[in-house]
Amino acid sequence: MAAIPAKTLLNEVRFVDLGAQYRAIATEVDQAMAAVLRDTDFILGRAVNQLEEEFAAFCESSYAVGVDSGTSALELSLRAFDIGAGDEVITVANSFIASALAVSHAGARPVLVDCNPEDYTMDVSRLEQAITPRTRAIIPVHLYGQPADMDPILEIAKKNNLVVIEDACQAHGATYNGKRAGSLGHAAAFSFYPGKNLGAYGDGGMVVTQDPQIAKALQKLRNYGQEQKYKHVSKGYNRRLDTLQAAVLSVKLRHLDSWNSSRRQLARLYNESLKATGVITPGVASHAESAWHLYVIRTKNRASLQAHLASQGVMTGIHYPIPIHLQPAYSDLGYKKGDFPVTEAYAEEVLSLPMYAELPADAVQHVADTIREFNS
Ligand SMILES: *Cc1c(COP(=O)(O)O)cnc(C)c1O
Fold first, then answer.
1. Is residue 1 pLDDT above 50, yes or no?
2. Distance of alpha carbon 251 from alpha carbon 240, whole angstroms
3. How are the residues of the chain apportioned to helix, strand and coil, as percentages rounded to the nearest 5?
4. Is any ligand 1 atom within 6 A of the Cβ of residue 169?
5. SS3 per residue for 86-133
6. CA distance 166 to 138
7. How many helical (H) and strand (E) elements, i.e. helices and strands, does the chain have?
């Protein structure tokens, strides 16, 4: 393949730069993809199996089942636990909408709780009051790469006989009290959407679990409910992870710890450089080591700060501008403005700064200087 020219405008700071990542690993990736093309085992090929073993080990867990997206990983996990019509599943208002969509797609009803003001993950003090006789599961979200407070969540789940499925779609490699995201709940869902910490060249996802029965159920669910060829024991789906994507992900997985440690260093640099600039830097709980999928600040002047940063070539994002309970798609749940005050306040204030492993330190400095200059 021809060399790809590095496109950088003077002072331009991209939000993510997947090209920079590819340039660093192009030879390995090209070889891995060529091997799949030669072997032609495109569906549930060898590379899928290999990635499943590697990713389960990476998560310090037992089994992993590759699927076609993070949303599918969540939905099929619920289905594997036989959760569906008539059931309620508790998740957070402060997340990407897929956390709730997966519940709806499984046929169950999402019940939302607010986030805590410190680290923006599930407010555990609100959890018990959301439980009803119909509740079957809890989906805590490791938002922005930071694990939710899993110990009290697991304790409440145990007391109420509920399943806990981690939404770890933003948290590949994060830890909670030293334990990897993905090893904490009864199952965990990961996304390989291109911009995630571990990203495919297209869609992909994975369920991780310690439970061999659940892993078996997922293997059938993703593959037409097939137990052996042309014997179908359930009305399953076509939700497999492509062999080609698995081959790419295996290559990238070898780099993930180093990419995550680079993100951690950049986050530290942001924290230092943003001191006394008037913006609120991310809160990190003592139990958490974030995977820093996103670096999210808060400011009362978001629109003008975002415009100023853009004028200086700095791209930013908002995660998320509309909380799940205020989305038109979920008007049927009957929530209203005011139901989740922390989530609603933060939806007006959060601003995600550029964050990816290859982001140069002087770009972080430029972003921080631009923010300081705007606020002074
Ligand atoms: C990305 C994401 C998902 C969905 O993953 P897809 O692979 O895009 O389906 C679910 N939950 C959260 C928190 C996410 O960030």
1. no
2. 19
3. 40, 15, 40
4. yes
5. CCEEEEECCCCCHHHHHHHHCCCEEEEECECCCCCCECHHHCHHHCCC
6. 8
7. 10, 14
- The closest of 221, 197, 199 to 209, measured between CA atoms, is 221
Whether 263 contacts 291, CB under 8 Å: yes
User: What's this model's pTM, rounded to 2 decimal places?
Assistant: 0.96
What does the pLDDT look like over 255-301, one tens digit per residue? 999 999 999 999 999 999 999 899 999 999 999 999 999 999 999 99
Binned at pLDDT 50, 70 and 90, residue 375 comes out as confident
Q: For 353-365, what is each residue's pLDDT tens digit?
A: 999 999 999 999 9
Helix (H, G, I), strand (E, B) or coil at 376: coil
191 lines ligand 1 (CB under 6 A): yes
Kindly give, in sequence order, each residue whose CB lies less than 8 Å from that of residue 224, ignoring residues fewer than 6 positions away: 232, 236, 237, 238
Look up residue 329 and give its two tokens: 């798609």
* Atom from ligand 1 closest to the CA of residue 203: 7
Distance CA 59, CA 131 (A): 29
Residue showing tokens 């999210």 = 296
188: nearest Cα among 201, 178, 175: 175
Beta carbon of 145 within 6 Å of any ligand 1 atom: no
User: How many residues are present in the chain?
Assistant: 376
Indicate whether residue 94 lines ligand 1 (CB < 6 A): no
CA distance 227 to 246: 22
What's the token pair of residue 110? 């999402």
Burial of 301 (0-12, 13-18, 19+ CB in 10 A): middle
DSSP 161-193: T-EEEEE-TT-TT-EETTEETTSSSSEEEEE--
Q: Give dist(CA 212, CA 214) in Å, integer.
A: 5
Position in ligand 1 atom list of the atom nearest CA 293: 15
How distant, in Å, are the alpha carbons of 128, 131, 154, 290 from that of 124?
A: 8, 12, 10, 18
